[in-house]
Amino acid sequence: MNSAFPAAVRELTMTRPDDWHLHVRDGEALRTVVPHTAAQFGRAIIMPNLRPPVTTAAQAVAYRQRIRAGVPAGMKFEPLMTLYLTDNLAADEIKRARDAGVVAVKLYPAGATTHSDAGVTDLRKTYKALEAMQREGLLLLLHGEVTAPEIDLFDREAVFIETQLIPLRRDFPELKIVFEHITTREAAQYVRDADRFLGATITAHHLLYNRNALFAGGLRPHYYCLPVLKREVHRIALVDAATSGNCRFFLGTDSAPHPARLKENASGCAGCYTAHAAIELYAEAFDAVGAINQLEVFASFNGADFYGLPRNQERITLKKESWRSPGSFVFGEAELKPLRAGEILAWKLETVASP
Ligand code: DOR
Ligand code: ZN
């Protein structure tokens, strides 16, 4: 064989991945989406932006029970719980949360995205809670966008780094922070240059698409999420970061289901649903740049290591084999349309095997 042109990889067996950023909602909706994630991932960090938000340890524990009840028999899946940071989250609650097994607290700047109206209005108001988190070893997960209306939507992440993240890290140098769903070259660079207390998740859709996808032949609501898709230079920077092997970058789908009628709407809500084919979409993005062999580090090692949790023992096998994604799923009373609904996907998850 000519070694300059190695045979393309068509099959990959690797450690079972985890999803470090996931929305599963509640009630009937949860029954649809939890099985999709549990079929692929060993664990997932569960976002707390329910209505009302998950702000107490007791609520997190009850929510964890409802999620566990939604895992189909025979599937092994562990939800990792988070609290929703508000201006009033008490330091005592952090201690109770840690004792209940909650691993992190999510910061939504008020008004930044779906169900963020109870979010933080001023970081200073959260300093007692952040001190407690630094002490108790809970991670801080950031929706890293400023919300000031005068800041251009496409600049909100870069401005967040300068005005919020830099001072925050100076004030809490030993607080572990995850900069969630990064979307820009600036964020990738900032995380790469930071110390071991900062990591970042990257979604499959930000690796696969740039902002043209939102307007391809018409307005495409199923590509609308927050932070919004950016220019191609940013997508390329994210692919470089994800495939680099750098331990600061890890998988977080930000799979965010909404009823189709609320996305296909005059004021469509933000969120791409990718859980039905998450690892396949990442495989496609990695394979597109000849980096499928870096997928395991990004998807199965870096996140667990950053959170200080053991890596999964099970293995999965992915094959390069076309299949058609379902067009929609039943979602309680509504319909859920995934990203790439009814389209061909290049990779397929074949098996999840116990050690
Ligand atoms: O697009 C998004 N959808 N971004 C978020 O930050 C929240 C999420 C959701 O909950 O729907
Ligand atoms: Zn999210």
Could you characterize what this model shows?
- By secondary structure, this protein is of the alpha/beta class.
- It has one domain: Metal-dependent hydrolases (TIM Barrel), CATH 3.20.20.
- Helix content is 32%, strand content 18%.
- It has an 8-stranded parallel sheet.
- Helix 3 packs parallel to helix 4 (127-136) and helix 6 (185-193) packs parallel to helix 8 (232-243).
- The longest helix is centred in the middle third of the chain and has 16 residues, at 156-171.
- The chain is globular.
- (4S)-2,6-dioxohexahydropyrimidine-4-carboxylic acid binds at residues 23, 49, 113-114, 143, 225-226, 256, 270-271.
- Residues 21, 23, 47, 254, 256 line the site of zinc ion.
Q: How would you describe this structure in keywords?
A:
355 residues; 11 helices; globular; eight-stranded parallel sheet; three-stranded antiparallel sheet; binds zinc ion; alpha/beta; 18% strand; TIM Barrel; binds (4S)-2,6-dioxohexahydropyrimidine-4-carboxylic acid
Short description:
This protein has 355 residues and is of the alpha/beta class. The protein has helices at 27-38, 57-69, 91-99, 127-136, 156-171, 185-193, 204-208, 232-243, 260-263, 278-288, 295-307, and strands at residues 11-15, 19-22, 43-46, 78-84, 104-107, 139-142, 177-179, 198-202, 249-251, 315-324, 329-331, 334-336, 344-353.
